[in-house]
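Re: beginner question about structure tokens

> Can someone show what the tokenized structure looks like for a real chain? I only ever see the sequence side.

Sure, here's an example I had lying around. Input first:
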Amino acid sequence: MLFSVFENIRSSGVQLSAVTAPKNAEAVRVSEQNETSITLQWNKVSSNTSFVLQFNGTETNISAPDGDGPVNHTVSFLSAGTKYTFMLCSVFENIRSSGVQLSAVTAPKNAEAVRVSEQNETSITLQWNKVSSNTSFVLQFNGTETNISAPDGDGPVNHTVSFLSAGTKYTFMLCSVFENIRSSGVQLSAVTAPKNAEAVRVSEQNETSITLQWNKVSSNTSFVLQFNGTETNISAPDEDGPVTSINGLAVTS
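And the corresponding structure tokens:
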């Protein structure tokens, strides 16, 4: 109530109601993020305090929560691998707090065209398309992680995994990384080349055939025999002894 005073005499007075600005939200944090959305979470201020979220020149009104738990709000339709700055203001009786600013990023896109470009007995070379100049990668396999820097050029990214076992199947998970946030990842399985057969020898020969013999490599390793422009598939042997193949040949006069 505001009174005017003259010679100790007061006017009838003017009444005015006003509110103080509410407290800022506390513990504002990112609870989840993917390629197209960011979920923000913060502690409730009071049962009659709502919020306004500002970003990219827009404002979103968020009602005062009913329960006692934290407030969650998901911002959708965002671009992958992008950094956004948010301003969260508490609102009481249309009066806003000073606001809390928070920056967060969306997850980058997964690498595309992930493929095996080369493989031998002890290594597998993976290749994939570059995502962006500021997106690096993490390759996971066999319980290990390898960090791979963002490439400088525009061509595909190549990475060779070495010191592998021959004739073995490996499963790789490749994640793109932007501002320490990982994509959902791309999984790829690939195998190393098997060992060559050992002790390859001629065990018998006559006018029309040659019998070849060699040591078994493993129970799941078969063979291909090439000669005179033809190929013969030879199944993986069941037994542990040597493998034998008989070839019919024309008699040389």
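Each token stands for a local structural state, so reading them left to right follows the chain. The two ends are 128 Å apart (CA to CA).
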